[in-house]
Amino acid sequence: MVVRTELDEAEVDAIFQALSDATRRDIVTRVIVRAQSVSEVAEHYEMSFAAVQKHVAVLERAALVAKERRGREQIVHARPQAIARARRLLDDYEQLWHGRIDRMQRILDEGNA
Question: What is the value of pTM for the model shown?
Answer without folding.
Answer: 0.80
